[in-house]
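Pasting as-is:
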Amino acid sequence: METLSKKEGGTGLGKKNLIVNQMLERKENFADLINGTIYEGCQILRADMLEKQSCHSGVIYEEEGSKRVLERDADIRMKADMGTYSLIWTNETQAKVHYAMPVRVMLQDALEYVKQVQELEKKHKDLREKLREDEFLSGIRKEDRISPVITTVLYCGTEWDGSKSLREMFEVDERDESLKVLEKYLPEYRIHVVDVSQIEDMSVFKSCLQHIFSMVKYNSDKKELYEYMKANREEIRKMDHVEQLAALVLLGEQKRVQKLMDGNEEWEGDVCKAIDDLIEDGRAEGRAEGRAESILELLGELGSIPAEITMRIRKEENVEVLREWLKLAARANNVQQFLSCM
């Protein structure tokens, strides 16, 4: 039997995504993710309503005389008992934009629907139920129903610039008059992208996600990140080691995470120290930024500053180097004298 395709790279279950998924697959965190995004902060979904499901879906089919397998693995899949009906919630976590995500999600959802139909068919066979002639073709009864599948794409990178629907991926010219005839026939298949950088109100999250997503959002501005982490230091330190490691991973601190995972068993203390180090990094960067601007302000009073020197000063992160340059700028009589001493 030949395997046609397995889960693509990018969000594969390597160490990085394994940590993030361990945090998200906790029922209270997953319920918070859905409540904060799909239900806009309303506390509809509870942890006790969720049941973990297999993330694997696939179908066996025959092509040119040989059997093939088409399969996909979701990052997280949960079944929710909503009382009068049930839902299948699936989540894909992305650090980078996947430009074929609508197709990928559509295929993944379709395989889950196929799986549900096959389970119904098997149930009827196991019970030796006799199907009517018009039911025999599908293997299920007319009154059989399947659970809706809703997939969220949690994106933790810079702003999502990929397609959010199958329609956006089509090679069509919207100005073509003939397209208007096809308008109602073209499938949309929209996907639900949760772009962390675009979330305005983090208070819709009630779990560790509020702090983790806030840190991810502010990660592009180290000064803002430092201010947020400083203000919420105790709450961040109260998160357990899985949640703190997930935060470090999503902040791009893979080197720190790798160091923690390579043989060090005292994770909790070390992760707290890594969080503290990150706060100190932000503090140092803030101090460095202040010194860089002070240096440029002093030099600006002495004359024109070459663009490459301005860039070099602003890019310098070593606080000690900046301190020395600040002293030089304060003592210099002109820009050239400063440059000769750098």
